[in-house]
Write a sequence for this structure.
């Protein structure tokens, strides 16, 4: 699956940070991360979640990932696009 900047670069960053998930798995979790956190992280809009922490908890629950994996995904996005 080929994605455009910044997504493709974020997967490469994820791998550099030590991420072990396949590209398919990474983007499944990445898409959940973006869906759950975009509003509260980038504009402060609590339309989905009342806080950043609540949004991050929702990502872990929905994607069934650990805090470590969540941090890798967050850092892979933030290092490329300065997320939130």
């Amino acid at each position: 699956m080929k994605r455009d900047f910044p997504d493709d670069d974020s997967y490469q960053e994820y791998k550099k940070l030590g991420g072990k998930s396949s590209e398919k798995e990474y983007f499944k979790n990445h898409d959940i991360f973006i869906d759950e956190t975009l509003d509260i992280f980038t504009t402060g809009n609590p339309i989905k979640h009342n806080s950043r922490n609540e949004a991050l908890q929702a990502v872990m629950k929905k994607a069934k990932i650990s805090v470590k994996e969540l941090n890798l995904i967050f850092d892979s996005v933030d290092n490329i696009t300065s997320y939130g």
